[in-house]
Amino acid sequence: MRPSDRLGFGVSPTGVHNDGCFLAVFNVEMFRPVAKFKGEVAEFARYLKDTKPAKGSKGVFYPGELEHLTESERAQNGIAVEPKTWNRFVDIATEYGIAERLKLERTN
């Protein structure tokens, strides 16, 4: 079997990425009422948030919370793009004749 024929994790010493993924989807109703499940998840999230953070930590976060906070912040304030990359975007938009319509300008 070649390394590319299997999925695993990490990077082998040869530089081959073994980036596997497992996804499971469950019909919650088969196990318990959805409303009860949602209540249990909310209770667990409160439990996590009430946990004292480790020294130097910004807090205790449940899975997906940091991503949600980042998405919210970026939706409100935009995404920081370093000048070299931004200027390349502007150059491409200029080549396609849309930079002016999009009000894009090069930065220093």
Overview of the structural elements:
The protein is elongated, with a radius of gyration of 23 Å. The chain has 3 helices and no strands. The mean pLDDT is 88. Helices cover 40% and strands 0% of the residues. The chain starts with 33 loop residues before the first helix and ends in a 13-residue tail after the last helix. It is mainly α and 108 residues long.
Record the SSE blueprint.
Layout: H1 34-50, H2 65-77, H3 83-95
Overall pLDDT, averaged? 88
Can you tell me the overall shape?
elongated
How widely separated are the two ends?
51 Å
* Rg (C-alpha, Å): 23 Å
Structural class by secondary-structure content:
mainly alpha
| Biggest sheet descriptor | none
Which residues form runs of ≥5 with pLDDT under 50?
none
Q: β content, as a range?
A: under 5%
Oligomer: single chain
Per DSSP, the total helix count is 3
Task: Kindly state the number of beta strands.
Answer: 0
